[in-house]
Amino acid sequence: MQQPVADGRSTAVPWMYPSQSNRTADSYSVHRIIEDPEWSLVTVPHLTELCLQHIVQNFEKNPILDRLLPEHQKKVLDRLPTGLPLAVTANIINDEDYWKRCCMERWQVCDIDNYGGSWKRMFFERHLENTLKCFIPNSTDPKQVLELIPLCKDYVWKLEVDQFLPPVKVDQNEEEDDLSDTASDMGLSEVTMNHYDLGLLITALPHLEELHLTYNVKDCGMNFEWNLFNFTYQDCCNLAIAVRMCHSLKVFKLTRSQVDDDKTRLLVRNLLDHPSLVELNLSHNLIGDKGAQAIGKLINHSRLEILDLCNNQIGHLGAQALAQALAENSTLTSLNLRLNCLEDEGGEAIGHALLTNTTLKFIHLGSNNLSEPTATLFSQVLSQNNTLMSINFTCNHLGLDGGKQLLEGLADNKTLTEFDLRLAEVGQETEYLIHQIVWANWEAARPESLQHPPTNPL
Question: What is the rounded distance in angstroms from the CA atom of residue 131 to the CA atom of residue 134?
Fold first, then answer.
């Protein structure tokens, strides 16, 4: 039976049997039950733990990471949220696990091998790329990019931007009324369609080695307009100056951007004698013979090792200019001319250059409307050239006789380890015999190639 006590809590008093009624009060004890709903068996945290919690909660205002012991730094970094301002974390936190969390929470696909094995580099390169892809000239505040420079400049080695947004037209109908058809044909409307100028950014990145750009708009949907894919002359001028000033740049790719002859010549003028550029990719553009002639000059006024001109409009005149440069060049190891219009006159010019060239290892001449005359000359190349490791003649019309001549040229060749003749009309038997010779060459070269086939950069 419980009886109330003065302090408002309940007290348990045991029953007393009649036989025990004469016992004194000292012969039994009174049990008191106190109910506390906030009582917990959890141990009170250590003072150190409380301090670390306070540091984490106030890190944005007071980032004192460098004052902590290493074991305490690790605990703080493991608890920090990934949404902290980059102005706070960029130059303070170098812990790869923290930046790994930042990357994994933001992007579904994270291949660290493409970023030198560094999660921090991946985060800043991709963050900067996304900022550039979403930048709208005359609408987005340029400070959004410029303020990133001091935060990411030490962690950016490569930029891949596959979209540049044009300015937003305020009143499209009014603009169309103001611009006559003649003015539009003269390119006067280009002034309003210039994209973000990369000049200030590129020249402020001291470690930038690779720049991959495409001037178009992805996923434009029903808002498709041709001017969304217009790489203007002013864009080209700004980019050319920026690339010239970026002395650390080794790889420059400008693809699918409607680069024509005039823009090619502008780019080349600014790339002549570049101190570090070794790879140039201008594939899937509108480069013709005049542009190829300019690139021919670049070949012998640079350190280029890889040149990709795939899917352009280069004819035999452009091929002859490239061949003349190739005959004198001593640095280029890879040349891709696939999907152009060389024809036999251009193919033969390239072949003559390869009779004297001693550095080129990989050449791609697929889909160039080549036929037996080119095969005849390359038969001579195969018998004399001791440098070429890979030739691609796919999707041409070399013919049965052309295939037989290539087979004869390969008789004493010991260096060619890859020869692609698919859809070249040389005949199955000839293609098989050529494959046997090339395979034997590769087998003989296996110790030098670390047990792997040659890696063709094309």
Answer: 5
How many residues would you count in the chain?
Answer: 458
Q: pLDDT digits over 9-42, tens only?
A: 444 444 444 455 455 555 556 667 667 777 776 7
Domain region containing 340: 298-458
CB 412 within 8 A of CB 384: no
Tell me whether residue 152 is in a domain: no
Angle at 299 between CA 298 and CA 305, to 5 degrees: 130
Confirm whether 65 is domain-assigned: no
Helix orientation angle between 316-328 and 289-299, rounded to the nearest 10 degrees: 0
Residue showing tokens 């004890």: 29
| Nearest C-alpha neighbor of 280 from the set 260, 298, 293 | 298
Whole-structure pTM value = 0.85
d(C-alpha 298, C-alpha 243), whole Å: 14
CATH value at residue 458: 3.80.10.10
| Domain-embedded: residue 19 | no
β-pairing, 31-32 vs 158-161, is unpaired
Domain total in the chain: 1
Non-local (6+) Cβ contacts of 16 within 8 A are 23, 28
Structure tokens at 426: 């040389």
Has residue 443 been placed in a domain?
yes
Smallest CA-to-CA distance from 212 within 230, 194, 226, 198 is with 198
Radius of gyration of the chain measured on its C-alpha atoms = 36
d(Cα 268, Cα 274) in Å, to the nearest integer? 10
Tens of pLDDT, residue by residue over 362-393, are 999 999 999 999 999 999 999 999 999 999 99
